[in-house]
Amino acid sequence: MHIPDGFIPLWQCAIYYVILIIAVYFASKWAKNNLDEKRIPLMAVLAAGIFAIMSMNMPIPFGTSGHMVGGALVAIVFMAPEAAVLVFTVVLILQALLFGDGGITALGANVLNMGVIGGSVGLFTFKGLKNYIGKYPAIGVAAWLATFISALACAVEMALAGTFPLVLGLTSMGIYHAFIGIIEAVLTIIVIMALEKFRPDLLAWNKRDYSNGGAD
C-alpha cells in the first residue's frame, strides 16, 4: 500500500501534503489535550508494532505492496482518528528514510490512506456497529474495512496519477487486501482484548463516553 516516490506527479503530491499539514495540525491539538504520561508510551508501542507489521510486504502488480495497516487499532484504542494520523506520519517517515518503503514525496498520500482514511473508517465503523453486533465483532469488521478501503483509496490515487488503470488497480489492491484484512481483524481483536484484560485504564472508552453510551 506504500506509494513510492515518482508514482504520483509532484503537483498531486503537493495537494496531499496540504491535506497532511491540516491533519497533523488537528492531530497535534488533539494530542496536547488528550495524551498523558500513560498513553504516550502506549502510542509508542503501537507505532513500533505497526512499523513491524507494515514491513512485512506482499508485492502487488504495478509496483505497490500489500500489508497489514493498523489504522483501526490505533483509532479505536484512543477513540480518535487523530491518533492514527500521528502514528502513521512518524512511522511512514521512518520507513521511507530508513528502508525506502514508500516515498517522501508521496508521504501525504500514504498518511492520507493509512492514517486519515484507515483511522476514520475504522473508528466510525466500530462506533456505528458496536451496539448492533457487539464490541469485538464490530472491532473485527472495522479493522477489515479500514484496511480494504485504504487499499482502494491507494488504487484511486495511483489511477489519478496515471500509474495504472483504475479497474485493474481496484481489483488487484482489493483482492489482496480483502484477505490481508482478515488477518488484521483477528490481530486487532486480540490486541484490544489483551489491553482490556491487563490495562483497561489505557483504553479511551473507559475514561469517557465517546458515542452516546460508551463502547460497551
TrEMBL record:
<keyword id="KW-1003">Cell membrane</keyword>
<dbReference type="InterPro" id="IPR002751">
    <property type="entry name" value="CbiM/NikMN"/>
</dbReference>
<protein>
    <submittedName>
        <fullName>Nickel transport protein</fullName>
    </submittedName>
</protein>
<feature type="transmembrane region" description="Helical">
    <location>
        <begin position="40"/>
        <end position="60"/>
    </location>
</feature>
<keyword id="KW-0813">Transport</keyword>
<keyword id="KW-1133">Transmembrane helix</keyword>
<feature type="transmembrane region" description="Helical">
    <location>
        <begin position="7"/>
        <end position="28"/>
    </location>
</feature>
<dbReference type="GO" id="GO:0005886">
    <property type="term" value="C:plasma membrane"/>
</dbReference>
<keyword id="KW-0472">Membrane</keyword>
<feature type="transmembrane region" description="Helical">
    <location>
        <begin position="138"/>
        <end position="162"/>
    </location>
</feature>
<dbReference type="Pfam" id="PF01891">
    <property type="entry name" value="CbiM"/>
</dbReference>
<feature type="transmembrane region" description="Helical">
    <location>
        <begin position="174"/>
        <end position="195"/>
    </location>
</feature>
<keyword id="KW-0812">Transmembrane</keyword>
<dbReference type="GO" id="GO:0000041">
    <property type="term" value="P:transition metal ion transport"/>
</dbReference>
<feature type="transmembrane region" description="Helical">
    <location>
        <begin position="72"/>
        <end position="98"/>
    </location>
</feature>
<feature type="transmembrane region" description="Helical">
    <location>
        <begin position="104"/>
        <end position="126"/>
    </location>
</feature>
